Amino acid sequence: MLSFPTNLANELRDKSSAYWYIRLYYGAEGATDFTGMSDKDRVLNSVKYRGLVLNWGTLIHSVDLNSFTPSVLAMNGLTLSNVDDSISGGRFTDLFNTQNYVNRKWVLMMGADSVAYTDHVQIGQGIITDQIDQSSSQVTLSLLEDVSALTVEVPTNRVNTTDHPNAPENNFGKPIPMAYGDFGLKTDIGTIPTSGAEFDRYFVKGKFPAVITNKWDATNAYVIASPDAVTMSAMDNKNVYMGIDNQMSPCEDGNVTVSTATPQITFKGDTWRAYFTLAKDAAYDTGDYANTIDSEFDTTYTLTEPTPPGSTYEITTGWKIPKIPKLGEILSVNIMFDFGTFSGTAPVPSAGNGFEINTAGDAFAVTWNGGDQTINITSEFSAAEQSAWSFEKDITLDMDDTGGQAADQSYTINEVGIELVFTPSQTFSKEYVTGGVLIISPAGGGIVTPVIRGTAITPEITDYIYYSGKGREYGAWVDADSRNNGYNSGALIENPVYMIEDILRTELSLSSSNIDYASFDVAGNTTNGEIGNVFNLAVGSIEYAFSQYRFIDGWALCQEIAANCGCVLYQSGDGTVKITVRERDEDYTASDRTIKYDEMQNIKPGITPLGGVRNRITVNYDIDYASDTTTAITAITKDTTSQGSGATGINATQELIYDNRFTLDSDTAVGFSTYLKDIYAYRKKMLTFNISTPKHNDLEIGDTIAFSSFPSTFKIYGNTITATDIYMITQITKRPNGCSIICQEVSEVGD
Description:
Elements: H1 6-14, E1 18-25, E2 34-38, E3 42-44, E4 47-49, E5 53-55, E6 58-64, E7 69-70, E8 74-81, E9 105-112, E10 121-134, E11 138-144, E12 153-154, E13 178-180, E14 208-217, E15 222-226, E16 232-244, E17 247-250, E18 256-259, E19 264-267, E20 272-277, E21 279-280, E22 301-304, E23 314-320, E24 328-343, E25 355-359, E26 362-366, E27 373-376, H2 383-388, E28 394-400, E29 410-424, E30 427-435, E31 452-459, E32 464-472, H3 496-506, H4 517-524, H5 531-535, E33 546-548, E34 552-553, H6 554-563, E35 567-571, E36 577-581, E37 593-596, E38 600-607, E39 616-624, E40 629-633, E41 637-638, H7 640-643, E42 655-659, H8 666-680, E43 685-691, E44 704-708, E45 715-716, E46 719-720, E47 727-735, E48 738-745
Parallel strand pairs: 37-44, 39-42
Antiparallel strand pairs: 1-2, 1-9, 3-4, 5-8, 6-7, 6-8, 6-47, 8-11, 9-10, 10-11, 12-34, 13-33, 14-15, 14-32, 15-19, 16-17, 16-32, 18-19, 20-29, 21-23, 22-29, 23-28, 24-27, 24-29, 25-26, 25-28, 30-31, 35-36, 38-43, 39-40, 39-41, 43-48, 44-47, 45-46, 47-48
């Protein structure tokens, strides 16, 4: 909603003596570089506005709530007198000889009689197009909102020959990605071991691309990659990966350095790893056995020694090693265990009479001290098996206490898997200099400082490396302008509303004067931000994370993110960027404005098309950046009443499969899926009407309306309009003396 000063609002309500005037800019668009026009000659703030406007036409803006997509705000049909000697000694069109208006700014203002100039407001702004319809007596202009400052190709930073002279040739001109959100360690699967068995290399939320900017640094003996051009929140040298044969393999962390401030990743060496979940062995599949290979560390499988009448105290469980794709030359094969608790009165068994790893009948005695373990079983495989990556064997874990310990011992297994350490198939050798300067000794003496050289092997990676961590942080803007949204500068950005604002500021160079940051705080603040109602989650539990590593129009990206969290992003008539949340139907309890029945003319009821109904929803999410495909899908959510043949049903199943590439989190994706069902499952009532005074010209698309004093005899397809029904404006057409509104009900469920 536009902010109308009280004096102007009162004048519009009481006397309706409103008028418009417009500034058509030219040249450099300086403070005085404009021609002022109105419906009659006016002097406002010592500036003369010529009375050449024959017809204002309309100022129109709309939004498609099915796609959350606004139209371009447009002023259609502005017609000016073009008779001879009407302005500057000639016609208006004659001014194009010296004052070219095309592709310059226009600003539409609204004032009223008896209201001071300082209480006038801007209601439209944009660009003057070259679509000009001219006759001898008049000229009609086409005026649109100006998105030229927003339609910037992002990411704006790219690999270039000046800053990255040694980048791979095919990377020159590629964007340096933009990374947002938390794609580090998973947080919903229990405590992930970081030592003993380093599962933290593998169990991460996502793996995002970093573009190679230096294919080989001969001085420092490493490859350099850039994950972003803006400071990031966190990265870990354990979580740098090579994408090979649909497998993300981490580099040996001792060969990796990361910097979040730059940000930068360096890596080298021929030691890389891969992890695979073991398969079930039917012989041991009892009880909670599946918890050992469910990729969760907070679910367990407990084994307890039997208490037989004889002297055999032994418990065994086992798995199968699956077929594993060949990735290179094997360096070692390891079994990784995350153990839980051990219980019993006797001490933990010792090597040779306790825990044993067995593969094909060969036993490895293991000393277990209650901690997690990584056990090397490479020798269990022949050279031929290692070369062919043929590891398909059974593997068992025995607790053998036949040496006389008490028979009351038990232990738990949280997770078990197989880890391969290997040298990638495609590598190259490079010479590097580690220090020193060679000085040629002059005749008769001098000093020679030797050059220290070496040779390194590193994998052939030409485009991208991948990594996990945490993306961009809030800038100082989140604390500026007396804002109180619950976020602070330097914190990780996970909230999609503020991802949009960050892109507007850092990539599109907008400032607080261009952004209606109050609307962003209404949508996204941590306490009661309206996007919480979209996902049915606390705002802090909404987790968005993505990397933009391909070029895209910046405004289109921001609107895509908005649509993927139930928001409409648009340019307001006051020239700022605003955001509005389309909440779930049940969350609307109040409106921005109440309009009385007797204010309305030409009222036309309606209902949204049948084709817009979607009553079976799934959401694809969690993108794999190596293959550029989503890897997860929500369970089907459906509305059987909508699908049915009852009065509120459509007697059909109409499916929506929605791609949300901005989240990795299942709770967030599920929340969004049920939201889509909520807003799409039923046809919505609509109203179209006119208002003959300009008192509501402060309304905009996305604003909500309630109605009062509707007669009970007025019905929309059998439904009366009550004071609790809330509608959202989907189109508003403004004129100096009134407006026309199309609105859609957003407050009801299944009606």
